[in-house]
Amino acid sequence: MRNCLSETNLLARANRDIEVLRWLVRMATDRKLLTPRQYEHCCLSLAECGRMVGGWCKQASSRKCMNKDTEMASNCCDVVPPGSRSWLGN
Description:
Blueprint (H helix, E strand, L loop, with lengths): L1 H29 L5 H28 L8 H4 L15
Helix pairs in contact: 1-2
């Protein structure tokens, strides 16, 4: 059971980190630090990573190997809302 908790925590963190990277790539593009081709490559790569993490997240939550009093599995695939600072750990 402990392994399942750490797996969902890692997947949730990976999902948040991908969202942060998407934001950073947009900021770098806005500041003309990335060319349009570099931006496209980053977006395609991050989209692929997001699909993989999302699939793993759904697989982990479908296993339902956690206690009924914890809701971590259902929150694993939640996306950080824009403007949220939860990725900073606040």
